[in-house]
Amino acid sequence: MALPAFAAPGNTDAVLVYTVPDGQKAAVTVNVAATANNTAKIAITPPGTVPGVAHWLETGQLLGPGQVLERTGLVLTAGCRVYVQTNTANSIAVQVLGIEE
């Protein structure tokens, strides 16, 4: 997946937003903008895995309309994945911005 990457989850499942391409590293910022009241989560996983308890960077962050959850300076190796999850469908817009090399 190339940067920037975008998602607007229509359900409450953990949604894969970005995967670092093979042979690359990435420095990214994850921006979660609330469009409705929700509780948001951000996870970083190793290659080939889905989020488990140890992978969540942010858990249970309460967001209201117009509020933003942002994590910056995340340095990821090839295959690492960025996931987001919310407890309310259609309540967030997600952007992953940064550089790959």
Q: Report the mean per-residue pLDDT as an integer.
A: 96
**Order of helical and strand elements:** EEEEEEEE
Task: Sum up the overall morphology in one term.
Answer: globular
Cross-sheet strand order for the largest sheet = 1-8-3-6
* Distance N to C terminus: 13 Å
Task: Profile the largest sheet.
Answer: 4 strands, antiparallel
Number of beta-strand segments: 8
Helix content percent band = under 10%
What descriptive keywords fit this protein?
mainly beta; 4-stranded antiparallel β-sheet; Jelly Rolls; 101 residues
Write the layout of secondary structure elements.
Elements lengths: L4 E3 L7 E5 L6 E9 L3 E8 L10 E8 L4 E9 L4 E6 L5 E9 L1
Antiparallel strand pairs: 1-8, 2-7, 3-6, 3-8, 4-5, 4-7
